[in-house]
Input
Amino acid sequence: NAGINIVMPTGVYTHPYHPLWVKDLSFQELAELFEKEINHGIAGTSIKAGFIGEIGISCFNNEEKKVVKAAAIAQKNTGTAIVFHMNHQYTTEVIDVLEKNGADLSKAIIGHCDHMFEKIDYFESLLKRKVNLAFDTFGMDITLSHELCYPNDYGRFSAIRILSNMGFINQIVVGHDVCFKVQLKEFGGFGYSHLLENVVLV
Output
């Protein structure tokens, strides 16, 4: 009723949240599953996945590496974008796995870059490899732990402006990552319309 388009993905999140069957499948079988959900539909329905993700990276152990390899193969075979929930300690390794397995890096989106908004050199090194960066927590100005403190939107703007001036604006993705009740308008948050109603990207 709200007129919002919902795009269903395929893939699995970080290792602690993997379904038990992920461990039993090879990377080839996982890739085939992702491709089936993209090309034919999910769980016997006609609803097709529109992208791969959010592929979760937490510790980048062998299970997460297997999923990234499968996602790379599925991306190569379908042309579908991959979105990552990224622990930035492992970003370079993830991109290496994608590249080694033939993925189109220009269709990889490295998520949750906001809290590292001051690390422009790091962002530049990633963007030079043709991946996209997501500043995807607009409106989220919170501290989740002593290691994870999100900036305000001005901080996000500052990073995006610098990267734009460096010629990378077409590799920047923005979003809200609405995942807590307090982000909804009903509970005092900005809701899903913050970018459209309150944020103007220049």
In short: DSSP finds seven helices and eight strands in the chain.
